[in-house]
């Protein structure tokens, strides 16, 4: 049983090796970060003022700027020998201080080899090996393998830290997609907080916006991330979108981007924001609306994808489009091809993605032979869809095309489709928790 006693984590840095913004860079992401005053140094964390994770070049001064110091640190855990995580001059600086207390350094062999000559006699070096378990500064520290640097800089590791009161933290940077050994070690851990690499350098040794939510989804399937787990992005770099845009993306996954100086109190009462249950995603043709909708649910352990398109026998071009959509969906998602969206919304046990409303409407009008005939059956189907959307109790994302934009269709059927779709979209928007319009791949919140 967990007790309501906090583990305090002070983020001394949340950035990648070059920080964010990179002082040499004038890209849109760096400029936006600088203008917003969101400056991130190399990632490092201080746990309960006694355990330091990572000791990079920014760490000592970041501690002072945060209103604390490192004099009470009893143990330092370093993941690998890259200089933003292990800065050997910092140990020389410590040696110049008076009254240093005994300290344990837990790190991979490559780190100990580099910093060893600079350690004073109060420091006891200990090799960090995957699967190892250590009691340091009152914390139970388990060592996990990272998907990052090889023997020349490590081998790189990650840390699972648990307090005496049962509060737990997964420090998962730097790493790409976790291997089976690491996943086995985190299975069932139900962490209070997961801090996961989001460098977005598009390298297998780091996570980006494609692999990051899929990793969170896998951690959910493994029971490492549960409903009460706070999921955060760290080791953030300028290959991410500007900070405000990144915050919006992460919020859709129930996560946040940490900032330097932020303090996490694990176990302290906190009001969790209510997630959006019904999300309506609007956009024109090729706007990126489907990709955005899929990304919104990418961190879920399982999703039911509802494909509403009616069959098109013998249409090779259409079949190619369908295959492209299928390829980009995670393997854990299930696909249902149906026009009965209302039934799926009423009975779904997992989050649902419906793509899309326009194809569903074509299917309904075709089935009712209503392009030129009576529309009572179409009106009834629309009423049923709105009712099931309004009553949906799970998470659902519905993609809807935008048509018209002032252009009057040339045919009667085109005008009918425009009118029906516009009216139905308005009704669904009124019943949605969130409405997002996607233009040129960029989401804009309407509600």
Automatic annotation (TrEMBL):
Catalytic reaction annotation: adenosylcob(III)inamide + GTP = adenosylcob(III)inamide phosphate + GDP + H(+); adenosylcob(III)inamide phosphate + GTP + H(+) = adenosylcob(III)inamide-GDP + diphosphate; adenosylcob(III)inamide + ATP = adenosylcob(III)inamide phosphate + ADP + H(+)
Q: SMART domains this protein is in?
A: Lactamase_B
Q: Which residues form the Metallo-beta-lactamase domain?
A: 41-238
Keyword set, alphabetical order: ATP-binding, Cobalamin biosynthesis, GTP-binding, Kinase, Nucleotide-binding, Nucleotidyltransferase, Transferase
Mention one GO biological process in which this protein takes part, according to its record. Answer: cobalamin biosynthetic process
User: Which residue spans traverse the membrane?
Assistant: none
Function recorded in the entry: Catalyzes ATP-dependent phosphorylation of adenosylcobinamide and addition of GMP to adenosylcobinamide phosphate.
Provide the family line.
Answer: Belongs to the CobU/CobP family.
What is the protein name stated in its UniProt record? Adenosylcobinamide kinase
């Amino acid at each position: 049983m967990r007790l309501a006693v906090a583990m305090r984590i002070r983020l001394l840095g949340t950035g990648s090796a070059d920080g964010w913004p990179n002082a040499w860079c004038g890209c849109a992401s760096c400029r936006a970060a600088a203008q917003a005053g969101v400056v991130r140094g190399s990632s490092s964390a201080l746990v309960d003022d006694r355990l330091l994770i990572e000791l990079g070049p920014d760490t000592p001064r970041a501690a002072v700027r945060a209103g604390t110091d490192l004099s009470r640190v009893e143990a330092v855990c370093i993941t690998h020998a890259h200089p933003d995580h292990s800065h050997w001059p910092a140990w020389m600086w410590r040696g110049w201080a008076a009254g240093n207390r005994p300290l344990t350094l837990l790190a991979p062999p490559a780190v100990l080899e580099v910093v060893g000559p600079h350690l004073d006699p109060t420091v006891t070096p200990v090799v960090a090996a995957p699967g190892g378990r250590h009691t340091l500064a009152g914390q139970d520290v388990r060592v996990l393998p990272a998907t990052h640097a090889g023997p020349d800089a490590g081998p790189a590791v990650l840390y699972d830290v648990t307090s005496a009161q049962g509060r737990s933290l997964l420090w998962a940077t730097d790493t790409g997609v976790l291997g089976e050994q690491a996943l086995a070690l985190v299975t069932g851990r139900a962490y209070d907080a997961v801090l996961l690499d989001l460098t977005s350098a598009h390298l297998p040794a780091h996570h980006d916006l494609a692999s990051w939510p899929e990793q969170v989804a896998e951690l959910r399937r493994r029971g490492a991330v549960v409903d009460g787990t706070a999921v955060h992005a760290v080791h953030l770099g300028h290959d991410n979108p500007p900070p405000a845009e990144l915050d919006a993306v992460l919020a859709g996954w129930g996560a946040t981007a940490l900032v330097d100086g932020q303090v996490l109190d694990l176990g302290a009462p906190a009001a969790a924001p209510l997630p959006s249950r019904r999300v309506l995603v609007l956009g024109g043709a090729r706007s990126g609306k489907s990709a955005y909708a899929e990304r919104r649910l990418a961190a879920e352990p399982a999703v039911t994808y509802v494909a509403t398109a009616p069959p098109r026998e013998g249409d090779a071009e259409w079949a190619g489009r369908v295959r492209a959509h299928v390829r980009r969906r995670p393997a854990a998602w299930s696909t249902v091809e149906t026009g009965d969206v209302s039934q799926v919304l009423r009975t779904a046990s997992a989050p649902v993605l419906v793509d899309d409303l326009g194809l569903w409407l074509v299917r309904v009008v075709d089935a009712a032979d209503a392009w030129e005939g009576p529309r009572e059956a179409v009106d009834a189907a629309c009423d049923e869809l709105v009712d099931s959307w309004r009553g949906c109790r799970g998470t659902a994302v519905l993609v809807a095309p935008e048509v018209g934009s002032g252009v009057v269709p040339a045919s009667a059927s085109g005008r009918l489709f425009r009118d029906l779709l516009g009216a139905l979209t308005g009704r669904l928007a009124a019943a949605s928790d969130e409405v997002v319009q996607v233009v040129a791949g960029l989401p804009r919140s309407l509600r």
